[in-house]
Every structure is written in structure tokens, then in C-alpha cells.
Amino acid sequence: MADTPDLPLSGGSVRPSRPAPANPLPRVMLVTDAGAPDPIGPLLTALRAVDASQVLVQVRLPGWSADARRAAAIALADTGAALVVNRETALARELGVGVHLPEQGATVYATRAELTPHALVGRSCHDADGVARAEEDGATYVTLGPIGPVPGKGPGKGVGWLGALARHSSLPVFALGGVALSDIALLRQEGAYGVALMRAIPASDAPATLLASVLTLTR
To answer: How many domains does the chain have?
Structure first.
């Protein structure tokens, strides 16, 4: 993935560049589930059983202390997985990892300025406008969803909806929210770059086997 140069926008402003990641962007993202009884242990088990460099982990642990979030991030990074931390630019800079931003808030451009040149800076999106803004702002990737049913978020918008948005964006799009194993092959066919899972690995009786299956389906 080559660097995307600064491009002129309407009104004379300039679209921020999107530096290529230092390493290939994984197609599987695991998002820590702060609501799970053990948000970290099953992920460590699964990552240690596979080639963890093929996985991107997003550390999102609201309600945890700063020290606990830092310790979790270090443990997950030590598996060899690529890492982004949710919102915490200072922690990302300390650990030499990337940042995942919410749909609203700090810009990708400002966040990247505080990190290493090729750091991953992703953003959560929920519709076409969000994806377009993230692309204009120079995000490395976006998460987009929900795809299937998610508690408290309704029935999901479906594989076709995500595919239509992914095909019209230059950004890698990770399908997030209610993604079933049976959805993954079709999501890839429809244009999703990869999939993001939050509850599935911590809830599995065989987290390593499940992660290996997901990696196979996204190749």
C-alpha cells in the first residue's frame, strides 16, 4: 500500500496524506471486550497459537485504570500482533503503536502528527458520510457496522450494505458488529478488506481454533 499524497480539495484546502503502514495491514482485527469476564486472557491464548502478525488488536477498555490499560496493551503487543489503542495518543506514542479514533472527535491528521510517520490511525464509522470523512482525513482504515444483530444496536445493516460502501472507498474497510463466521467469505467477496471481532473470541470455548478459522476465511 503506497503513500497517498496530499491532494487539493474544494475551497483550496489540502487533503492530508495517508502514509502506508510500515507492515502489511492485517485482515483480522480483534477488539477487546471490556464486558467479558476475562477480556485479555482468551485473546492472548488465541494470538500465541497463530501467526499474530496477521492480526490487528484494538485495545478498548473503558472503565479500566490507565495502568491496567497500559499493561494489557503491552501484553497483547508482546504476542507480535499489530496494535492500536482506542483514543489514547499518549499511550500509543509511548508504546510505538497506532490509535483508533471514534467517529467524532480528534482528526486523523492531528493524531498522526503526534505519532511515528507510518503509525496506524483508524476510525469508527457507521455510514457513508463517516467513511468519506475518514478517507478525506487520511485514515489508514475504518471499521464499519453493525453488520448483524448486536445487543442494544438493533438487527444490523447487512453484508450488501457494507459491500456497497466498501467498494466506493479507497480505504480498507473492516466489517464490525454481529459478524458471523458464515458471513466472512461473502463480506470479502463484497469488498470488505477484513473483519473485526469483539465478543466472539472471549466467549469461545476454543479461542485459538476460532481465530485460526477466521484467519483462513479472510485470506
So the answer is: 1
